[in-house]
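Regression test attached.
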Amino acid sequence: MHSVWVITKRELAAYFSTPLAYVFIVIFLGLSGALTFFMGAFFERGQADLQSFFSFHPWLYLFLIPAVAMRLWAEERKSGTNELLLTLPVPTWAAVIGKFLAAWAFIAIALILTFPLWITVNWLGEPDNGVILAAYIGSLIMAGGYLAIGSCVSAATKNQVIAFIVAAVVSFLFLMSGVELVQSFFQGWAPLFVTEAIKSMSFLTHFNDIIRGVIDLRDVVFFGSVIGVFLYVNAAIVDLTRGS
Amino acid sequence: MIVLENLTKRFGPFTAVNNISLNVSKGEVLGFLGPNGAGKSTTMRMVTGFLPITSGAAGVCGFDVANQPQEARRRVGYLPEGAPLYGDMATRNFLGFIAEARGFTGADKTDRVDHAVKRLALESVVNQPIDTLSKGYKRRVGLAQAILHDPDVMILDEPTDGLDPNQKHQVRELIQEMAAEKAIVISTHILEEVTAVCSRATIIARGRIVFDGTPDELQSKAPHHNAVAVRLANADDTAIRDALAVLPDVERVEQPDGASTLMVIPRNGASIVEQVGGLVRDRGAEVDELYVERGHLDDVFRQLTLSE
């Protein structure tokens, strides 16, 4: 556990030692604000809640989280520092989890910085803060899912641009598997359990449950499994690509 | 302290390291030589646990690298080829990270970092990001990282590559200071380094060991080892040349075209300097220069790694 914490600390500091962190936070706050007010019709809805804020998160994360995750392993392989990291008395799983937690904490910081919206909605009306808190937690858990995908893809390449694009595409498939477009493609011929299985893999479906303020154990287990599976594959890829 | 038993590494059909067995004990500094691509780095990477071993075994201080990787790694200080470092970190923070990753905390950690900083004379750059440091400083940060936990085994992949002569000297001094209580393996392209710091030289070519012995033994394999060079004032004195050629331990006398120096080659590397000197003195020839050729390591290296 000690080594996980050591890695997390270093990685988190690494985010803030480059402009990437600040660029990311500014873009995240700017975009989430713009989407909430302009596309989400925050005022026109006339309701004191943050639905219009959270409903864009799956789309925002689609390209912002691969940008956070792309450097995690690709950069180490490119600069050769993985040789340093992986010959320290730190198990591979600890390095994988440490890096993941650092990126997750970074996203949590970005998410916390959206608090002015929460203040705004409380000032304008009387929202159900329980629902908002649940949605924040749900959003963070979903971000973890995207992040695990991104970290896993990053381990498979030395090129951060490729890591970004592939992670975005894989995330997109997970995101879209629940929407009508994809579902209707399968519904014509695939048996029901297949379409249901595909639908159950959708980030969107699971997040839409959470956004209503219900943190269902099934949704938590779903995102938890996505994180677990991708981080497991991530560690396997790190071990397989040593020295290549 | 380092034991390699039939160590082999294959990358697909290519065998990078072929059945290497080696034993390095405390107090030894082993110079690992070989042409590029001979398998030096691959061998070192297997011992440090970076690369998985295809077959055979490697052990460090009695711990098997494959089965007890954490225990083995704890006892190794490793400088990877090119000394990769986290360039965005300041020197002190970087060494602090390495100390923590090696399990040091609190005052212990500070002590370790301070000690390593002092040992490598990094005081002036502790707060600078590593990216902004010169090549020499970077290499020294890499070495500081490797000695931080006072390991029993040090594996240094080209520790002096790209350094200027003064920096090379510093690094060699550091290695010699540490040599007594550690087992050290350094890989290098610089053959003089072997005579300067190593107590043992091992040459590998195409993944196999082609020489293993002391630097002196290596040098004695040189084609001109113990040859005597004589430069006469009168370069056309063929009488002396012929007299030298028939001395009992002399194989032949060479005189490159136009050169004024005679190269007297001994039989089986025998020491002939006294015979040659005596003969020249007896004949009353005027000698400008007379010295014993130690033989060029480059020649031995080429001979060993290109043959077969």
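Expected vs. actual: identical. Chain B has eleven helices and 14 strands.
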